Write the structure tokens for this entry.
Amino acid sequence: MQIEHVELDFVQLPLKAPFQTSFGTDVVKSTWVVTVLAEGIRGYAESVADVEPLYNEETHASEYFCWKNSVLPRLAGQEIDTPEQVDRLLEPVRGNRMAKAAIEMAIWDWFARSQELPLWKLLGGDARRSRIPVGVSIGIQPSANELIAAGLAYLDQGYRRLKVKIKPGLDVAPLTALREAVGPDVLIMADANSAYQLRDIDTLKALEPLNLMMLEQPLAEDDMIDHAALARELTIPICLDEAIRSDEDARKALELGACRIINIKVGRVGGHSVARRVHDVAARHQAPVWCGGMLETGIGRAHNLHLSTLPNFLLPGDTSASDRYFAEDLIDPPFQLNADGTLTVPTGPGIGVTPNTERLKRFSTHHESWQVGQRWIGGGIPHGDPTSF
Ligand code: OSB
Ligand code: MG
């Protein structure tokens, strides 16, 4: 295939409730919905950067310019025979993994649709994994009572594990209260989004009696050395999120002992091809992985579920049902939680879900249609004013 057209919709979908992490609070999910068109077939994905560079350094704006100046010029005019080729064509582009991922994922969806196969098959997933066990990620709550109420409500709905966002000062007390409220058997973990330093080790050790499954990304987003030092002192297994950006990062982290578990986010690592390699490296090190999330709409959620069919996704993911986030999702039908705490992997061609046109229009605040072949795509890297198009 050769890419003929790329459509971008900047979407702002209200969240049911504010989502607070150690780095900020989101009240709306904003994302670029990316559609790649060729031969009358459309491939869909969404990007996972945010307005500000708080989770990592990418933003909606950096993605836009990276697509325009670096990613699409390298794909335009190329005959792409397999989705794996995209990762190789984009290899010269440093960083900007969320930008690369959104286009690469849309092309994976395009190929799966063109072959009338579900994406999981193209990715090499396991046919027996048609239902993916999922948990829920609970943002920082104003009080321990509100955390307990949220946790109990999600368990009641059937979620299999609770992930609790923490930050200094809102860690040991709320987690202890939650553990007491739900009893010893519920799977609980914590995610710090880089809010601690090695000198906070006494606080982190105070979490040890709570029987947490793991502690996610406690230290700096680009660190492995201090995580390895912490791992030697802490009985709670460390899981890395932000710090794993590639299969090479995964290898180094596991060899250093910086983590025992990896949270894989397709966007963070630059697409399905890299995500699969991260999965394979972890499997070789006997380290389980699970699929993280970035509050995606149903489009990104579908991609996440297909990836989760690979065999080393051994722990419940953050890929919760649509109604955990939104009153209305972009796709039909929305993802629903099965009674056994799983989400069903869609079986249709590609990601198996398609955006609802009316809702995509209604929640889109900005639309662009880029025809490959125009000056700024396919014409090499532009040298002039990058904002003129
Ligand atoms: O660190 O996993 C994270 C959401 C936004 C940014 C970072 C993270 C998260 C989540 C939510 O934890 C996971 C989800 O429900 O999609
Ligand atoms: Mg995380």
About this structure: The domain at 121-344 is CATH 3.20.20.120 (TIM Barrel).
